[in-house]
């Protein structure tokens, strides 16, 4: 009887019981942490896939086809392919055509792409003990293609923005605008025409319709640029522009062949004025463009998609922004003896194809991406460039 009582009170070996229970609890917590960590990683990777897909879809809207939003169109297919290329826990996420939609923005604009990415049936380790053997991970992202009022890598030559053609230099009816037209507000004697050519800038404060270049009307148009040899503003004649940083032909050519990181901003309330470089800079311009073409020799323009194909870059360096100047401000400056006055009016995308023997720069007007300035300003909806950004 005494031995039984002694055994009942004996606590030797209890530590092993507590150690065993603690070890089980520790292993359970560790395993649960592995599950949670895996799910958090899967969630982040799925979100990355959705983000990339939405951005790619918005880019395809701008560069390939704004109107084709079908299941087999470039926007949907680009969004799907890009999202699937971003693996989630070693496997491609599921993104089908119904997962790519085009919701309206709060302002009612049809300029957004939404992508929902799925990673179904991820196996759990600890969850199986409580009946949860697999989990599904989903993520959603929305990207927006909005007007861009700022740009980097702008080339140091400028051409006039597009206008509504009314008359010729003698104030006679001149028909429709072409790349050989001239902006005529005054006749050769600096007398104002009765029905002059008209230019309406982007974000016009009077609410008039912008007359300049647009993606819908002008992408795919061939344009040959040559050094200006006349006073009238002509779409094919460029003026050299003194960029921030330095002066001289070498600096000028370097800014064409490479990228000047200075940010140019178009703000209707605070005009940006551009100073012309002395001389035509015809040689340095042609040399800089030739160097640029040599960086991506296989890139070509495709009229079917109205985009650049076979580039070895995400965006070919041969596709670049050109600053556009206000032709009316220029013409009025000339008529009033102020010389060449260049007011930034917009940006134009230009894909350089080749340089001819006379230093003419042959190219095609193309869609291009820009940025939205962080300055407090209202970005005009008429901007030619587009900013692609995630909004959700």
Explain what this protein looks like in three dimensions.
- It is a single chain.
- With 392 residues, this protein is an alpha+beta fold.
- The protein has helices spanning 2-9, 14-63, 74-85, 215-218, 249-257, 282-295, 327-335; strands at residues 100-101, 112-123, 134-147, 150-151, 157-160, 222-227, 237-240, 264-265, 273-274, 300-302, 307-309, 319-325, 342-355, 361-365, 386-390.
- The chain is elongated and about 85 Å long.
- Helix content is 27%, strand content 22%.
- The chain has 2 domains: 11-147, no CATH class; 150-387, no CATH class.
- The chain is built from 7 helices and 15 strands.
Mean model confidence by pLDDT: 85
β-strand number: 15
Radius of gyration: 31 Å
Shape estimate: elongated
Main attributes of the structure:
392 residues, alpha+beta, 2 domains, four-stranded antiparallel beta sheet, 15 strands, elongated
Q: What would you say about this model in short?
A:
The termini are far apart.
Topology overview:
Blueprint (H helix, E strand, L loop, with lengths): L1 H8 L4 H50 L10 H12 L14 E2 L10 E12 L10 E14 L2 E2 L5 E4 L54 H4 L3 E6 L9 E4 L8 H9 L6 E2 L7 E2 L7 H14 L4 E3 L4 E3 L9 E7 L1 H9 L6 E14 L5 E5 L20 E5 L2
């Amino acid at each position: 009887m005494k031995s039984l009582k002694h055994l009942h009170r004996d606590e030797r070996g209890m530590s092993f019981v507590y150690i065993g229970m603690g070890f089980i609890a520790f292993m359970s917590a560790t395993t649960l942490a592995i599950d949670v960590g895996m799910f958090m990683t899967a969630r982040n990777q799925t979100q990355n896939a959705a983000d990339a897909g939405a951005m790619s879809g918005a880019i395809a809207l701008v560069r390939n086809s704004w109107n084709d939003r079908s299941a087999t169109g470039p926007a949907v297919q680009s969004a799907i392919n890009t999202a699937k290329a971003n693996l989630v826990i070693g496997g491609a996420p599921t993104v089908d055509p119904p997962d790519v939609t085009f919701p309206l923005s709060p302002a009612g604009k049809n300029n957004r792409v939404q992508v929902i990415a799925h990673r179904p049936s991820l196996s759990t380790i600890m969850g199986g003990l409580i009946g949860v053997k697999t989990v599904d991970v989903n993520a959603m992202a929305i990207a927006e293609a909005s007007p861009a009022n700022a740009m980097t890598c702008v080339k140091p030559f400028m051409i006039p923005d597009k206008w509504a053609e009314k008359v010729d230099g003698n104030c006679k009816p001149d028909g429709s605008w072409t790349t050989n037209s001239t902006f005529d507000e005054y006749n050769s004697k600096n007398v104002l025409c009765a029905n002059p050519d008209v230019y309406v800038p982007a974000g016009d404060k009077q609410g008039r319709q912008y007359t300049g270049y647009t993606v819908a009307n002008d992408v795919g148009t061939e344009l040959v640029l040559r050094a200006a040899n006349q006073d009238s503003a002509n779409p094919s004649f460029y003026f050299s522009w003194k960029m921030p940083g330095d002066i001289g032909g070498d600096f000028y050519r370097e800014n064409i062949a490479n990228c000047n990181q200075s940010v140019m901003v178009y703000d209707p309330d605070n005009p940006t004025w551009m100073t012309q470089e002395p001389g035509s800079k015809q040689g340095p311009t042609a040399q800089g463009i030739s160097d640029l073409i040599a960086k991506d020799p296989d890139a070509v323009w495709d009229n079917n998609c109205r985009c650049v194909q076979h580039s070895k870059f995400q965006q070919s360096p041969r596709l670049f922004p050109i600053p556009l100047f206000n032709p009316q401000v220029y013409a009025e400056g000339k008529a009033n003896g102020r010389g060449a006055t260049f007011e930034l009016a917009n940006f134009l995308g230009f894909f350089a194809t080749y340089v001819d023997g006379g230093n003419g720069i042959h190219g095609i007007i193309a869609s291009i991406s820009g940025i939205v300035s962080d300055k407090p300003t209202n970005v005009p909806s008429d901007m030619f460039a587009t900013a692609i950004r995630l909004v959700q």
